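Summary for the steering committee. One of the milestones for this cycle was to obtain a three-dimensional model of the protein with WQD bound, which we needed before selecting residues for the alanine scan. The sequence and ligand used are listed below.
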Amino acid sequence: MTKILVTGGTGYIGSHTVVELLEEEMEVVIIDNLSNSEREVLNGISSITGKEPHFEEVDLRDRESTFGVFERHPDIAAIIHFAAFKAVGESVEKPLDYYENNLLSLIHLMEAMKKYGVDHMVFSSSCTVYGEPDTLPVTENAPIKKASSPYGNTKQICEEILHDAVATMQGKGVISLRYFNPIGAHESTLIGELPIGVPNNLVPFITQTASGVRECLSVFGDNYNTPDGSAIRDYINVVDLAKAHVVAIRRLMDHGQKSDFEVFNLGTGRGLSVFEIIEAFEKSTGQSLNYKVMGRREGDIEKVYADTSYANSELGWKAEKGIEETLLSAWKWELNIRSKK
Ligand code: NAD
Ligand code: WQD
């Protein structure tokens, strides 16, 4: 059985990907230090799949402990590297924490690839590397804009590290996946996003407002140059996103002895405004949402959505789930969490 190391595997996107890998009969080793997730997520994964991943509570900033995992699992064939700090605002407050965690973790994994002969890695990147794009939809060849936060800068630097390191490592292949806006939860409602504190992201804020945890959603700006004045993003279902990782792993393993670094956009190709998301949420869930229009949020861009044609043709992958289905899954997940509190 092919053994895949998933870092950040108890996190939001990682846990959904672990489910897809287990369902494709792969063996999974998770590394997570539980800094932004809970051990209980493992129960959700097992309930869905009837299988158990190996779990290693390890901090990737610790090189020796990280190497220890490769000593215990000498047959790891590929790595999917999700583990990172990801809060844009927090990264402005604590830049060194972000550079330390996101860069050191990657470097230690690259060192382990070299030392233990692991040939493949899939890396979690972000559409944040494009900033405010000059043309839409945005392709993988669009220029990388100066990062607007230390978080965004870590993704740019990590891609550069990967590009440069892979060029010197014969036979290694890396795929960097640039996610647009991942939302929703597994249809079982056994795993989903667990935002700690007040959510920064739109969809968790919407579901928490509808469930009464938050009083009112602030819509950040209605005077953008968009059809309804609110900002536009490409919201992608987290299960669709997870499936793309299985495809990327297969592509790397089928590739043979090449040293290369590839980049793919993971989005739906469809841009939706904040008002359109609110409307789709109300329609799919039957909940009416309390919201008010506020000023723009600092650092926000006006509109971004993916050109997915390269991922569609080269990976043979396409996002399949619609926005209403996806928002309904986020709502069911919210109800599930609330019923346990
Ligand atoms: P998440 O916080 O839910 O998951 C990340 C996991 O990594 C957490 O479980 C955390 O405990 C773990 N982790 C962090 N630092 C670690 C370390 N040093 N050692 C071991 N474990 C560590 O985040 P997510 O939303 O699942 O995001 C996964 C990846 O995707 C991240 O790299 C993120 O930057 C990227 N990404 C996320 C989004 C998004 O909107 N969620 C968008 C684009 C890219
Ligand atoms: C979406 C839209 C907001 C909250 C962030 C990161 C990005 C990537 C994905 C990791 C925007 C509006 C939001 C609210 C609102 N993450 N909004 N009221 O900003 O596109 O991207 O997550 O790589 O790097 O920056 O996502 O969900 O925060 O916002 O009106 O309470 O919803 O202004 O237009 P964003 P988001």
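Key point for the committee: The pocket of WQD (ligand 2) is lined by residues 86, 88, 126, 128, 181, 200-202, 205, 217-220, 231, 233, 274, 297, 300 (CB under 6 Å).
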